[in-house]
Amino acid sequence: MNILGIDILSFLVFAPAIGALIVLFLPRQQKTLVRAVALGISTVIAGVAVAIFFGYNSAVPGYQMVLQTKWFELLGASWHIGIDGVSASMVLLTGILTPLAVLISFEIEERVNAHMALILFFQTGLFGVFVALDLMIFFLFYELTLVPMYFIIDQWGGPNRKYASTKFFIYSLGGSLGMLLATQLIGLTAGTFDIPTLTQVWPAFTGVDGTFLGIDIGTVKLLSFLGFFIAFCIKVPVWPFHTWLPDAHSEAPTAGSMLLAGVMLKLGAYGFLRLVIPLFPDVWVAEIDILGMVTNMATLFAVLAVLGVVLGAFAAFGQTDIKRLVAYSSVNHMGFVALGLAVTALAYGQQYVTGATEFAQDAIQATNGAVLQMFNHGLSSAAMFLLAGAIYHKTHTRDMTQYGGFWVKAPIYGGIFIFSSMASLGLPGLNGFVSEFLVVRGSWPVFTVLTLIAMLGLLFTGGYILKGIRAVLHGPFNLKWRNTQLEIELREVIAIAPLMVLMLVTGVVPNWILTVINASVTRILGG
Fold first, then answer.
1. Contacts of 267 (CB under 8 A, 6+ apart)
2. For residue 430, is it left (φ>0), alpha (ψ between -120 and 50) or beta?
């Protein structure tokens, strides 16, 4: 597929960056023009993302829309891009959320050109990660996402934006250093950075004499595994690597929070599924001794995931800051993604090492749920941050103890708030239920006790969601806001409407996307 003679995936990756340059050099005084051009560019790119998703044929095995050409021959890296069902879903999510974030950013009055350009540059980084089939390309675009988000938080964030952006940058860069080491170790040892090739040869790779620069290949693999594991745990974020997230979310402007929670967190989960699970199957199931307890990395990963589910819910329940409540809810919901991926890692590793297929079907369900949860959380978290930002810009406070009874002055906002909250809660009939059910169903036979503990987190998910609804909408009306316009604006309704439609459609008819995801997941797991 081509656009103007350019490969469609290459167009998808570079069009936002070109659009960012156009927006950046528009006349700064003409803010309306800048906003309109940014929205127009991002909307066109969203149309391309939708076309790519529906142009993907789930009946055809392997990657599609593939392009491979020379790029950095000295290192053995190439411009190799393509998509499968998992990456097609993430491309769709990115394409949908970006124009909505641009529309919400119409409220930004300072340095509008730079703000809009950074959002588009950020989109280039996201697309680049999701279509990359070369480790060096993957790493470069993964790092590219860090820079725009840092400046979005640092320049347009809340009162503590300097602290939040610096913490975000240090955590992300620290993880990326290990990821760079892992990328170099794998590429230079195996002689290629090509991801499909590495998936086939790296798990059994021993080299010429079993060493690399005098280091045993087994040690090289372990170091590479740890580099990727920590980097992606930070990005998901998996407990206890999550502490950067509440500050970054709460201080970021509304559009930044929407994209950070909606898409950026998915880079870590996507990295696990695309790289860490298929490249290191034996490492996941190798026995390790922790304080006298023999376990494996897949089980340890599941433990961390469940701690994220439970402790994230507890932390969210204890918040009075509406954005921090939504931020901690991301730790809770992404914990289910990590739990599904832990099942995948264990089943994939056992099948590779021993040929056992005991948990193969459970892993397919859990992985389907994890990928669908990535998509669903992107919708619901973006909607919740949009609503949190909408009320903040009218009241100039995030303290929910200062709210109360807003239903009487903002009934439309109240209805949308409850709808989005129920989707985040996992109410049957809305999108969150389908994905979390699949994760729990797939995890139960594999990690029964841990899944049971995770249900405690699910219980408190209902608690903090209802607490948020009660604090914002119910109770006596706070007369402090009697002369304040609290109702949601038309621009905000237009921005959240596509999210609401997708949350409902995915909850009622999930197969429109689940069929695409399942085809690739089944092939990955050999089902």
1. 126, 129, 142, 145, 232, 235
2. beta
Two structure tokens written together for 90: 């993430």
Is residue 62 exposed (0-12), middle (13-18) or buried (19+ Cβ within 10 Å)?
Answer: exposed
Look at residue 429 and tell me whether its pLDDT is greater than 60.
yes
User: What is the rounded CA–CA span in Å between residue 307 and residue 235?
Assistant: 16
| Distance separating alpha carbons of residues 297 and 276, to the nearest angstrom | 12
Q: How far apart are CA 205 and CA 21, in angstroms?
A: 43
* C-beta separation of 266 from 366 below 8 A: no
Closest CA to 447 of 277, 295, 286: 295
Query: Does residue 97 sit in helix, strand or coil?
Result: helix
Secondary structure string (H, E, C) spanning 373-417: HHHHHHHHHHHHHHHHHHHHHHHCCCEHHHCCCHHHCCHHHHHHH
Residues 145-167: tens digit of each pLDDT: 999 999 999 888 888 889 988 99
pLDDT at 215 over 80: no
pLDDT, tens digit, 9 for 90 and up, residues 286-320: 877 676 666 788 889 999 999 999 999 989 898 88
Looking up tokens 């950046």 gives 24
Question: Which residues, in sequence order, are bridge partners of residue 69?
Answer: 79
pLDDT at 481: 83
Encode 32-54: b = buried (16+ Cβ within 10 Å), e = exposed: eebbebbbebbeebbebbeebbe
Residue 278: pLDDT above 70?
A: yes
Segments of 141-271 assigned E as strands: 211-212, 215-216
> What's the CA gap between 382 and 154, in Å, rounded?
20
For position 497, what pLDDT does the model report? 94
Selection from 519, 525, 527 nearest residue 58 by Cα? 519
Q: Is 66 exposed, middle or buried (0-12, 13-18, 19+ CB in 10 A)?
A: middle
Q: Which of 101, 90, 102 is nearest to 128 (CA)?
A: 90
Distance CA 434, CA 431 (A): 6
**Nearest in space to 383 (alpha carbons), one of 416, 350, 406:** 416
Tell me how far apart the alpha carbons of residues 266 and 345 are, in angstroms, rounded to a whole number: 17
pLDDT at res. 43:
95
Phi first, then psi, for residue 117 (nearest 5°) are -65, -40
User: pTM for this one?
Assistant: 0.92
d(CA 21, CA 119): 11
Closest residue by Cα to residue 296 from 214, 354, 375: 354
Q: Which of 254, 237, 250 is nearest to 383 (CA)?
A: 254
pLDDT digits (tens, 9 = 90+) for 110-131: 889 999 999 999 999 999 999 9
The model's pLDDT over 49-87, given as tens digits with 9 standing for 90+, comes to 999 999 998 888 888 988 989 888 777 788 999 999 999
